[in-house]
Write a structure and sequence with these properties.
It is a single chain. The protein has two helices and twelve strands; from the N terminus they run H-E-E-E-E-E-E-E-E-E-E-E-H-E. By secondary structure, it is of the alpha+beta class. A twelve-stranded antiparallel barrel has the order 1-2-3-4-5-6-7-8-9-10-11-12. A hairpin with a 4-residue loop joins strand 4 and strand 5. The mean pLDDT is about 85.
Length: about 300
């Protein structure tokens, strides 16, 4: 009996020792292969950086899709026990940039659209349709002739409006010339002291066009699985500070699998003309509160 027990313990110890050796060997092999993979990945990244620096077009897009659908029947704890509701949001950030040795042409598109629906099935007085809650559309085109690696003489056209409701009412079109500064590879700063802000709207009491200065700062970058973009755009009127405005948008996406991930968008805006139009008062009497929006949901990229 003692011999059998001793033999069993010996075999168990041998198996354990063999397993430990095998595990350590496999971990050592994995570490060796990982070091080789890291080396090759670094070389591939360096080659990609050289490719990105070559003249030509750079195209890309990423965005966020968020939404939910729900239905309730006889859910008496709430005010409308029988209803169908839904919320859908879509954000798109796209760019098409032509970078050459002596000039550049940068084009960008930002759109954030959101719809919401609440259908109370116990009444026919509410709407069965999805109604727009967020409606943002911005398109810009920047052309510059390079003076050196960091400075260029440039011209900018930027148009902003809504798509779902009241298209081009209001619509804002900035046309101007000045300089563009690129202190970093992914940072673009536009400084245009000669700019005219065209405003298209039916309400003349709230909206007016004027001359002023246009300043835009844009930083867009991809780091591994993370893509982000921040853009600050402001118009400062020379005629009346009430005609000035700014918009700051931020987009972030994290790739979880292939092109699918999680995305978050957040924006701030100040525009007294829009406030006056919404409140139905003259421009001087408007209460210009800070405007904000955010979207959280699944993200995609191309």
């Amino acid at each position: 009996m003692t011999k059998k027990l001793l033999l069993s313990v010996t075999l168990l110890f041998a198996i354990t020792l063999s397993y430990a050796q095998t595990k350590e060997e496999l971990q050592a092999q994995k570490a060796e292969k990982q070091a080789e993979a890291d080396k090759f990945q670094g070389e591939a990244n360096a080659l990609q950086a050289q490719i990105d620096a070559l003249p030509g077009w750079r195209l890309g897009a990423f965005g966020t899709v968020g939404g939910s659908l729900s239905g309730f029947n006889n859910w008496y704890a709430q005010g409308a026990p029988n209803n169908n509701s839904g919320n859908i949001g879509i954000t798109v950030n796209g760019f098409a940039n032509l970078i050459e040795d002596k000039f550049f042409w940068r084009n960008a598109l930002t759109a954030n659209l959101n719809w919401v629906k609440l259908d109370d099935t116990d009444t026919n007085l509410d709407s069965d349709d999805f109604n727009a809650t967020t409606d943002v559309f911005n398109l810009s085109s920047l052309y510059g002739r390079k003076l050196n690696e960091k400075w260029a003489i440039s011209g900018l056209a930027e148009y902003r409006t809504t798509l779902i409701d009241n298209f081009n009412d209001p619509g804002f079109l900035d046309l101007g010339v000045g300089a563009t500064w690129t202190p970093l590879e992914n940072l673009i700063v536009v400084i245009h002291p000669l700019n005219y802000n065209f405003v298209f709207a039916k309400n003349d009491a709230a909206f007016a066009s004027s001359a002023g200065a246009k300043i835009v700062a844009d930083y867009t970058r991809q780091i591994g699985a993370v893509a982000f973009k921040t853009n600050f755009s402001t118009f400062q009127s020379y005629e009346d500070s009430d005609l000035s405005n700014f918009t700051w948008t931020n987009s972030l996406s994290y790739t979880l699998w292939k092109m699918i991930g999680v995305g978050f968008d957040f924006a701030l805006r100040s525009n007294k003309q829009e406030a006056a139009n919404f409140q139905g008062v003259d421009l001087a009497d408007a209460d210009n509160k800070l405007q904000t929006y955010y979207t959280l949901g699944l993200s995609y990229k191309f």
